[in-house]
Known about the structure:
Layout: H1 27-34, H2 40-48, E1 52-53, H3 54-60, H4 66-78, E2 82-87, E3 93-98, H5 100-103, H6 105-116
Antiparallel strand pairs: 1-3, 2-3
Amino acid sequence: MTHPTVGHPGLPEDPRAAVAEPTPTCPVEIALSAVQGRWTTLVVRELLRGDRSYSELREALPKLSDKVLSDRLAHLGAAGVVERERRPGWPPRVRYSLTPRGRRLGPVLQALWDWGSL
């Protein structure tokens, strides 16, 4: 039996793609949920360049408020995109880094950039 998306360029050959409405288990919805929210993609971009402290992220994105940065980091952490590492010492030091899953967003963001540049 031929899958219903065969012959439709650009559509995934995955049974989960044959849905009539968005579902929380849809891979596209999961990806969009992970990067939703203003500033989220820029926070991910900065972390694609390497681990950062909170203050380094603030310096790289000076117009981003503390509240929104905190919210975005918490959201990305809950989505499994960002890891928060608290280092011992005083004052406490915290570093943020992308998880392996988060690093896989690099090509996704590049594809979105390329598509939006058309």
